[in-house]
Specification:
Blueprint: H1 22-25, E1 26-27, E2 30-35, H2 38-58, E3 65-70, H3 116-126, E4 135-138, H4 145-159, E5 165-169, H5 170-182, H6 186-194, E6 198-202, H7 211-226, E7 230-235, H8 247-253, E8 257-260, H9 266-283, H10 293-300, H11 305-322, H12 328-334, H13 336-342, H14 348-359, H15 363-367, H16 373-389, H17 394-400, H18 406-422, H19 424-438
Parallel strand pairs: 2-3, 4-7, 4-8, 5-6, 6-7
Antiparallel strand pairs: 1-2
Helix pairs in contact: 3-4, 5-6, 9-10, 9-11, 14-16, 14-19, 16-18, 17-18, 18-19
Family: Belongs to the DnaA family.
Domain AAA+ ATPase: 131-263
Biased composition (Gly residues): 1-12
């Protein structure tokens, strides 16, 4: 018994009943009605259930209880003409993702230590495994989060052409929500977003502080999860670090798999450059680049991968336009502004703050007099980083750590140099902290 969409305004005209389907759907005092979405079924049940029961009784089919079944779970025993699912907004045609860059695929994503977990989780989701729901990727600018999002969307579209995959930014979600409110088309908005198979929202932190948008996203999130639909989200920080998010929204965002995409290390940066150069040479076989240029760029440009790729693009354009080999001298001349920006000096205060955050201790305890191991080891790590990442003298570093003597700094630096060889955890901590500070 297919059920058309009921209007949102009060108790209007009842949906027309398909009498041919009644014998197969009504029996034992129970009638099952096919609805496009679970949300629409709940709405009709709240507003029209009594009227439908009365109409069935008047038509000679006394029924005591109604079951509203979404199309995917509809009873197949009787011939049913399924009601069409609500159409997505014009920006997202049925069965397609929007704003997808064909270059952003899994094949062109370079995997390294800093992003291997995010890549593996994205692959699993794209293959149809829904154990990670939602999948929440977070990290700084230019680290590959959007690349992974678009790769998931394109892989899903290739595997399941009929799947309704909707990819958009949080800003686009908010704009459509506000437009629906203004045009009094909230039911269309709700049905459209609840009818997708996969919802992907980029930069979700932008809904923070926007109460009405948060509330609608929360209900959309719940409706899709209840239907077993996949959700993928990205942000520039973890859910608990996004201020002005409602507690219930934060809790929902943490209910799946939260993965941090860390700043790229030297090996990953070099791998990204090699991959991009291979694509450039495929388009222009005459492109010449001297040995050591890629290594130079990977070592000097550490801010993010987007800036790194842009630098190589500029070099390739320069070499192509002037017909010259790309040498180290040409790279220094052409990328002077980028290199100067990448040479930002790290301060001891920044190092102390990052180390305290990493080890979850107070900054006052890091630089204070307490000699507990839980404070002493992070303090030595901070001293080591201050010695290796700044040009400050040992006495100056000691003064920044609560007025300690330079011999204390020397001892701390030597201790960390020994531990980073024998203690894998210390080595990982140093690597992560250095990359975070360089970024």
């Amino acid at each position: 018994m297919p059920l058309g969409a009921a209007g949102p305004g009060g108790r209007g005209q009842l949906p027309e009943l398909d009498r041919a389907a009644e014998p197969g759907l009504a029996g034992g005092g129970v009638a099952t009605l096919v609805v496009p979405t679970a949300f629409l079924g709940s709405y009709v049940a709240r507003n029209f259930e009594d009227d439908i029961l009365a109409a069935l009784a008047q038509a000679g089919a006394p029924v005591s209880r109604l079951i509203f079944a979404p199309q995917a779970r509809a009873v197949a025993a009787a011939p049913v003409t399924a009601a069409p699912a609500p159409a997505l907004p014009p920006e997202a045609p049925e069965g397609e993702s929007t704003r997808l860059d064909p270059r952003l695929t899994f094949d062109r994503f370079v995997v390294g230590k800093s992003n291997e977990l995010a890549h593996a989780a994205a692959r699993r989701v794209a293959e149809g495994h829904t154990g990670f729901n939602p999948l929440f990727l977070h990290g700084g600018v230019g680290l590959g989060k959007t690349h992974l999002m678009q790769a998931i969307a394109q892989e899903m579209r290739a595997r399941q052409p009929q799947a309704r995959v909707l990819y958009l930014s949080a800003e686009q979600f908010m704009i459509r929500f506000v437009s629906a409110l203004r045009d009094r088309r909230m039911m269309d908005f709700k049905q459209a977003f609840r009818a997708v198979d996969v919802l992907m929202v980029d930069d979700i932190q932008f809904i923070a502080g926007k109460d009405s948008t948060q509330e609608e996203f929360f209900h959309t999130f719940n409706a899709l999860v209840d239907q077993g639909k996949q959700i993928v989200l990205t942000a520039d920080r973890s859910p608990v670090e996004i201020t002005s998010l409602e507690e219930r929204v934060t809790s929902r965002l943490q209910s799946g798999l939260v993965v941090q995409v860390n700043p790229a290390d030297y090996e990953l940066r070099l791998g990204v450059l090699q991959s991009k150069l291979a694509s450039a040479r495929a388009a222009d076989p005459s492109l010449k680049i001297a040995d050591g240029v890629l290594e130079f760029l990977a070592a000097r440009i550490t801010s993010n991968l987007r800036v790194l790729e842009g630098a190589l693009t500029r070099l390739c354009a320069q070499g192509n336009l002037v017909g010259r080999e790309i040498t180290l001298d040409l790279a220094r001349d052409c990328l002077g502004d980028v290199l100067r920006h990448s040479d930002r000096k790290v301060s001891i205060e920044e190092i102390q703050r990052k180390v305290a955050e990493h080890y979850h201790i107070r900054l006052a305890d890091l630089v204070g007099p307490k000699r507990l191991r839980s404070f002493a080891r992070p303090r030595q790590v901070a001293m080591y980083l201050a010695k290796t990442m700044t040009s400050r003298s040992l006495p100056d570093i000691g003064r920044r750590f609560g007025g300690r003597d330079h011999t204390t700094v020397i001892h701390g630096v030597r201790k960390i140099e020994e531990l980073k060889v024998s203690d894998a955890q210390i080595a990982d901590d140093l690597d992560l902290l250095r990359r975070a500070l360089e970024a």
